[in-house]
Amino acid sequence: MRVVVTGAAGMVGRKLTKRLMEDGSVAGRTIAALDLHDVTPFEAMSSPAMHVTVHVGDLAAEGAAAALVAPRPDLVFHLAGVVSGEAEANLELGYRVNLDGTRALFDAIRHAGNAPRVVFTSSIAVYGGPYPDVIPDDFHTVPLTSYGTQKLMSEALLNDYSRRGFFDGIGLRFPTICVRPGKPNKAASGFFSNIIREPLVGLPAVLPVPRDVVHTHASPRSAVGFLIHAAGLDGGQVGPRRNITLPGVGVSVGEQIEALRRVAGQDAVDLIREEPDEAVWALVKNWPTRFEARRAGELGFKAETSFDEIIRAHIEDELSD
Amino acid sequence: MRVVVTGAAGMVGRKLTKRLMEDGSVAGRTIAALDLHDVTPFEAMSSPAMHVTVHVGDLAAEGAAAALVAPRPDLVFHLAGVVSGEAEANLELGYRVNLDGTRALFDAIRHAGNAPRVVFTSSIAVYGGPYPDVIPDDFHTVPLTSYGTQKLMSEALLNDYSRRGFFDGIGLRFPTICVRPGKPNKAASGFFSNIIREPLVGLPAVLPVPRDVVHTHASPRSAVGFLIHAAGLDGGQVGPRRNITLPGVGVSVGEQIEALRRVAGQDAVDLIREEPDEAVWALVKNWPTRFEARRAGELGFKAETSFDEIIRAHIEDELSD
Ligand SMILES: NC(=O)c1ccc[n+]([C@@H]2O[C@H](COP(=O)([O-])OP(=O)(O)OC[C@H]3O[C@@H](n4cnc5c(N)ncnc54)[C@H](O)[C@@H]3O)[C@@H](O)[C@H]2O)c1
Ligand SMILES: NC(=O)c1ccc[n+]([C@@H]2O[C@H](COP(=O)([O-])OP(=O)(O)OC[C@H]3O[C@@H](n4cnc5c(N)ncnc54)[C@H](O)[C@@H]3O)[C@@H](O)[C@H]2O)c1
């Protein structure tokens, strides 16, 4: 089969690409060709088993999406996007990439006419508070950020285009992916990863919010697992509601720090410095806490069940050999 | 103040225009200038009290929205749109008018920079079934039509742009406006009006769905009332959730027919012929039934309280002289 990945140079995109190359197949079918797209120039590993092509460009630019899907891929992973902090800071960029880029891709797929499976990374940012203790799947979606708005609009389009049979779309409302490897990005959620990743390698980290903030996380490994699982789902089983809230580990920042202590000791914890930041707090206090994620469970999506597991996944995937 | 109305040649637009001219003021302020826009050529009454300008063109066309709001209106009523049946039959037209037209207008207002009140006609089509008996304000929005999807995307944009202070938006989720005067349009909901309007003037009408179908209605007079009321609302009182589900009369088709009998007699009722139509039924059975509309009530929105009142409003407004 032919597979497309947009946002392939991103954190999740790179890990997904690696997994697809290692597995050599997805959704039970051998991958013959892999088309990787991103606006950031990047290099992909080559593979003896499949034909890998790197495409660099702006997905929202005239003709870019059409060229990408002209060979009529069987499966499209749409990960390209601008993160929350950037979408809030730069209104036009956020709408251009997160909404227009998505729409350009969806319309290009519609015109290609072969109705592939499309897996789209949405976000729990489609929700807005006030929240109940545990957020049910059918909680109303009134986002409080431009990023969440753009994801919601994209979800709506995915649902409508799937209903009309232009493709077979699955939108995945990712929880915050933690521990995010590498350097901090512009996501306001960065500190959730920083306070784990930095101390694990002996570096200091800043905690800008109170310890009782509760939030839901899944590892990058789980993120890739979600995408691969979605690729193989039976569309009929998913039904008309194509956007699915995923599971994760709902913990307070205090519990994250306790997990760090158990896994890496007090020395690591001592590297975290509390430095309240009103701007971060203003955003974070509107963020969702815990999810029921019942449909995702029924459909077989799996995440970690403790934050200790999330830290260990990071150590295995990023800090070994 | 300067007021803009888009969709001014439409059913609601014409009635709103008439009311604005008669009142001479809105939201407590005198109307000095009224800019009326539609893609369908139309003529407006002239008014000695205000400067009325007719603009004809496609709101989604490059530059059209910018030209319309260049004089920085204080109040914008955005009614232009393609109805449900047409948006379903013509995908590109629906997205172009209902989404791109709305976005062009909202962006033009953002660029004009004077942050006016914007009143947008959304629809209960943003909801999708299955439904509870009475649909609460915070019921999740998973539309089952392209029209509903376009309205939902527009609502999301309105909410985000209001949050960011580009304008002070109010989205109104209109129930079905009944009795719709004039000729049937392409809305799949046409029969709700046909079975009343036609018999009242001695003409036959077809009922394509079972009599136990329940749906919520408000008169065109109430529709205008909603718009005028929204124009004068205190934005602070509305809060961060800018899209409001409006009240109406939730009745079965059987109850509509009973009301017709009470108001116009058995002869009128005898003109209704039941002729089940699978295509109409397939759409209608996914439509919402009754709404709680609690927030709208708290904010002072008012509709009829019985279907008899709705029929009498039609007779007074359309059949008297
Ligand atoms: N990481 C998280 O916690 C998280 C949570 C919820 C949702 N998501 C979503 O998952 C997806 C992947 O997340 P990530 O953490 O890998 O993000 P990332 O920022 O690491 O990767 C996104 C990629 O998209 C690319 N991109 C940006 N604009 C583009 C354009 N115009 N054309 C083509 N490519 C463009 C970027 O260059 C980047 O490589 C994103 O859509 C993100 O919104 C992530
Ligand atoms: N009537 C109802 O039952 C109902 C219910 C819910 C929501 N609404 C919404 O209320 C609004 C008014 O409804 P209505 O019943 O008066 O509809 P209508 O169809 O009578 O009027 C809509 C007007 O928009 C104009 N229009 C279409 N495309 C345009 C474009 N590209 N540029 C500029 N103008 C354009 C049409 O020419 C028409 O005059 C619409 O947005 C509709 O979706 C109506």
UniProtKB/TrEMBL annotation, chains A, B:
Output the Gene Ontology terms for molecular function. Answer: oxidoreductase activity
Q: Which UniProt keywords apply?
A: Carbohydrate metabolism, NADP, Oxidoreductase
Q: Which Gene3D superfamilies match?
A: NAD(P)-binding Rossmann-like Domain (3.40.50.720), UDP-galactose 4-epimerase, domain 1 (3.90.25.10)
EC numbers on record: 1.1.1.410
- Give every NAD-dependent epimerase/dehydratase domain span: 3-203
Membrane spanning stretches: none
Pfam families in the record: Epimerase (PF01370)
Keyword hit for Protein biosynthesis:
no
UniProt entry tagged with the keyword Oxidoreductase: yes
What the entry lists under CDD domains is as follows: Gne_like_SDR_e
Against NCBIfam families, the record matches this protein to: ErythonDh
Q: What is this protein called?
A: D-erythronate dehydrogenase
- In the UniProt record, the gene name given for this protein reads denD
